[in-house]
Amino acid sequence: MQRFDTIIRGGTVATASDTFRCDVGIRAGKIAALGDDLGAAAEIIDATGRLVLPGGIDSHVHFAQPSGPDIVMADDFDTGT
Q1: What is the pLDDT of residues 38-80, one digit of tens each?
Q2: How far apart are CA 78 and CA 35, in angstroms?
Q3: Is 75:38 a contact under the CB 8 Å cutoff?
Q4: 8 membership: H or E segment, kind and range
Q5: DSSP code string of 32-52
Q6: What residues form DSSP beta bridges with 27?
Q7: Complete domains list, the chain, with CATH
Q8: Taking the alpha carbons of 38, 46, 43, 58 in that order, is the dihedral positive or negative?
């Protein structure tokens, strides 16, 4: 059995306090491990040369924003959260 559903491999992980090179193991939609050589997974994402922000939340959103009578936002609370 595979230990992780997804492994994000080869990226530079950025946390609130540091940046370092490691892999991110994801199981059941949650971050389960940070480390090197995490083994096999159903999906491998190559993040070489990219930043990985595990658990990062993009809080800059514009859903249901009053913008004018003929303007409709692409997301509402249900789809944008």
Answers
A1: 999 999 999 999 999 988 777 777 777 778 888 877 777 777 7
A2: 34
A3: no
A4: strand 4-9
A5: EEEES----EEEEEE-TTSEE
A6: 30
A7: 1-55 (2.30.40.10)
A8: positive
